Amino acid sequence: MSELTTMKTHWAASLSEEDISKEIQLSGWVSIVRDLGGIKFVELRDRSGIFQVVSDPNINPEVHSVFQKLRSEDVITVKGVVSKRPEDTYNETLKTGTIEMYPVSVEVLSKADVLPFQLDDETVSEDLRLKYRYLDIRRGKILNNLSLRHKITKTIRDYLDSIDFMEVETPILIKTTPEGARDYLVPSRVHPNKFYALPQSPQIFKQLLMVGGVERYFQIARCFRDEDLRADRQPEFTQVDIEMSFVKQDDVLSMMEGLIKNIFKTAGVEVQTPIKRIKYKEAMDRFGSDKPDTRFGLELFDVSDIMEKSSFVAFSDVIKNGGTARAIKIPGIAGYSRKDMDDIRNMAISFGAKGLAWVTYCEDGSVKSPILKYLTEAEMAEIQKRAEAQKGDIVFFVADKASVVFNVLGRFRLYFGKKLNMIDESKHDLLWVTDFPMFEYSEEEGRYMAMHHPFTSPNPEDVDKLESDKGNCRALAYDIIYNGNEIGGGSVRIHTPEMQEKVFHALGLKEEEIQAKFGFMINAFRYGTPPHAGIALGLDRVVALLTNSESIRDVIAFPKNSQAKCLMTDAPAEADESQLQELRLKLVPVKK
Ligand code: ASP
After folding, report:
1. Whole-prediction pTM value?
2. Residue 528 Cα to ligand 1 middle (Å)
3. Predicted local distance difference test score (pLDDT) of residue 4
4. Which CATH superfamily is domain 12-110 in?
């Protein structure tokens, strides 16, 4: 490698036996200092790794007097010649473990105080790590994650560039975008009492870039969502945001498969394409989830027809009232104790079920169930047949609204899949889920909301259902799932003003509201708009999964903690009175 800078000629870990006798200069941190019989061994660390430098008072007393004062994490620069280590001192754990250097000169560039934690201490709390994030990054793990993230981002740019995409920046100070979460607001000083919003995604802008003739757009885009706190959520996160003109759904999916293949390859994972596709309805029916983990079985099955006719009123009533009854068979747990079953019932209730029924196929061949008395022999036989139940199995049943049933049994499936070690962790299962519903009923709001966002095109076959049968209207929307995690989603967009107005109306927006909020967009669609479609990939999540990180915080340089705070800078913080005055803002004290 050529000279890197005036302070280092090489990366520490790039050196090898081929460099023996070369004059080099290294700069970095003192990782470890050891004293063996008066000789000082220093592991010098830089971004690339470690290289050993040694000082012997008999060889260079001047250098040695500096080495004697070195402490962990001091920053130094050393010059010297690479030499081979004596064979009995090889360090097999280091890439550079067979070479070393006796410096001819050393300079301390910066002294380090005692650190708030030892860099190699694995027990440090995350809060402390986040407070001193710059030291946490030095520990190596985060640095490696950031390095892979960089490589993946570069892969994305190179791949998309190679197929004629253009990276375009969209604004951060905008008018609200309706992605369903709460906006972060930024008060305007020059326009008193008015606010910008931070983008939840560049959705509207990327669509307007299609009207503008960009045809193929992408952006590594920061998005902001003021959502309720949850363990692994960040108020700001990064999406690989993509939009294409003159395409149908299939074009977006196959373009994305190329991108996904390249991203995964960068992380050393080979992906088979085409990626499997299933429709939303099938995903719910089989797995109880729109982001199914398909690395294992334990599929749900429908027992509505059996239960409807049975004398088990608690279930038959639910079905007569439009609900559904589904079941899941869990193998080999028939020996569970009464306490185990109580715990499982409580788990079902905590997931939203009103109750839980089950049938146990005991090892001795007998069949036990709290609902046995309500079911005929023929009904029991049909259940066993559908479940393909054998000795040792338990079949669980839930009857309720479809959303509750799927939530409970979908989570049961994941719970038992993990507990019974049924998930092959070496698998990389990718899956498209397509044909999402257009609308989702919100109990909270008491109305139908857009399941993806209001710019998503309804399935042309279901346009007549926009008003009359919202619950069964499908959208041209798709998600991509990796090992049970949603890593991206998108849709074919509406591109005519007529259809966009129709969908806004279906969502219950009043004419004035449509004009005030989206008039500019509908207007844009009047001036020649290509059919277009797009998708956004959650970059943080993808990198977190590919680095086996427990949290997306581990792939973000300076993340907020789970309370949406930056522990290093203490954001969010109070504003000065003068700032508030300039913004014409008054604070309302928090009621305790
Ligand atoms: N803007 C959408 C999102 O953030 C993605 C898309 O439809 O392209 O989920």
Report:
1. 0.94
2. 23
3. 74
4. Nucleic acid-binding proteins (2.40.50.140)
